[in-house]
């Protein structure tokens, strides 16, 4: 252990090692923060999508992208009836409820969508509601009426009759200045959606949420299912680090122990290990994983087990064997045998620790290779469908033609995190190689 501790102290001489350590520390800290603030079960539930994301826009860019570009794209506004001045006019057998949903709009661009979510409580008779849209210059648009179920979603943007009347999609036509036929411009000011509802029971209630969807959202944007990509980017860190670390530990430690056992026992044991290694070397890892994912399971833990199993008899056994052969003939090994040390003690206590300093750089640089392997499988559509990972984000972007539609953030964000992870471990690994490898120490 003393050579290892002394070598770690020498890392301060290499700025690249310090930068790599800072990157790795930031990734580990973010991973811990993510697991604590967004527990595993909650992350899976969020990634499944559904109604939890209904207030988010579809394919919205990150806010910082719009600020860098100097734009003024709108953000999502939620106007709730709980904040509105509601009027009640009772009559025999019921009452009339007037709910004005007012908001200010000051952006040059148009919103991406308009939805109205209604929740009503009643015993037998459904309420009836009539919708009217009022613009800042006094124009009114009748949006129609309907009876309400207990949970109702009115997609104003998908009202084809309204689109024909306006001559353009509703979320543009309802905000456009009058007279602008070719290139419409948004009319700034105070808008209002008025709900005139008729309820037929005293205890009946109506709650409404008007969502004016923006074109930018959060730090990472959203995808085609309205999911906040920040969830996947954050949870991709612990998944990537866990997969890379477990795969590196499993393959490296097991390979080293098997190589040391083959060197010590020799004979047919060493011969069998070498033949298995030679057969395993010619097996292509990625096609085998593709076959497993296609025919058996795409679970990330199944893939991890296959990676470790195929990595046990890797080419590293040849390298470790060449390093351990001279150690087997060392005088202190003979001394250990003389005072009665057992085979397991000699292998684990006297042989393996001698090459651990050389093993550390290899172990560190192996981690990002397994991180990229997991991302590659997910990008090919063989990733775990229930886990939010960087590769799964890029696979969704590829499926939805994100680059073709100009959603560059969808691809660049996970790709940048993958590159940053690889850079951090590579910078630390190369510095460790200089510290622990005598041939590189003087370079």
From TrEMBL:
It comes from the Bacteria. It is found in: Cell membrane. Keywords: Membrane, Transmembrane, Transmembrane helix, Transport. GO terms for cellular component: plasma membrane. It is a multi-pass membrane protein. Belongs to the binding-protein-dependent transport system permease family. This is ABC transporter permease. It comes from Thioalkalivibrio paradoxus ARh 1. The lineage of its organism: Bacteria, Pseudomonadati, Pseudomonadota, Gammaproteobacteria, Chromatiales.
